[in-house]
Design a protein that fits this description.
DUF7500, alpha+beta, 4 strands, two-stranded antiparallel ribbon, DIX domain-containing protein, 186 residues, 7 helices, 38% helix
């Protein structure tokens, strides 16, 4: 290959096969709604695995004199800080959390503040209880917390319209439409 023309150039934007587009099982893709996905732009890799791969190349003898960086809480937090700071996005998060003994991580950056918040909340709710609908988990967490929530008037108006209620209906009618479990009766 003298000319190098057969090598794919990432700058050319190669065409992806259908198998490469199957994102349902990708650990860096989070489905936030039917047909809506959030894709993490920075694939998180285990730093020790990446060092081991490069150190154990068959062509290179292992150099025991190389020192690995010291991983401390401070250095990891500093690296995460710098990593988020270096993105071109306005908003983002990088979270490591423990749920019933299982550690889970999630990272997202975006220029859409609502997408970032929604993704964080959906991810968290799925970690808390994968068998309960996300909206129910979020409702329980908010109602059990000591954080007062002020609902935008437009959301209440939307609920009233959805249920076919009018100003003549009572609060009891609204509560009956919402139902005892907090979910809207259909």
């Amino acid at each position: 290959m003298a000319s190098g023309e057969d090598k794919p150039n990432p700058e050319d934007g190669r065409i992806l096969s259908p198998e490469e587009l199957d994102i349902d099982d990708d650990e860096h893709v989070e489905q936030i709604d039917d047909g809506r996905y959030v894709v993490s732009p920075n694939v998180r890799t285990d730093s020790t695995a990446s060092v081991s791969q490069s150190d154990q190349s068959p062509d290179r003898p292992r150099d025991e004199s190389r020192t690995r960086p010291e991983f401390t809480d401070t250095s990891v937090h500093q690296w995460l800080h710098e990593n988020l700071e270096d993105t071109n996005s306005q908003y983002g998060f990088d979270v490591t959390a423990k749920f019933d003994g299982t550690v889970s991580q999630q990272q997202l950056v975006s220029n859409d503040i609502v997408t970032v918040f929604e993704s964080l909340m959906l991810w968290y709710a799925r970690q808390v209880d994968a068998d309960t609908p996300v909206e129910e988990v979020l409702g329980i967490l908010l109602s059990e917390s000591n954080v007062p929530v002020k609902y935008p008037p437009s959301s209440v108006q939307s609920l009233v319209r959805t249920e076919g209620l009018s100003p003549e209906d009572s609060i009891a009618d609204l509560l009956a439409a919402v139902g005892e479990d907090g979910g809207v009766q259909r």
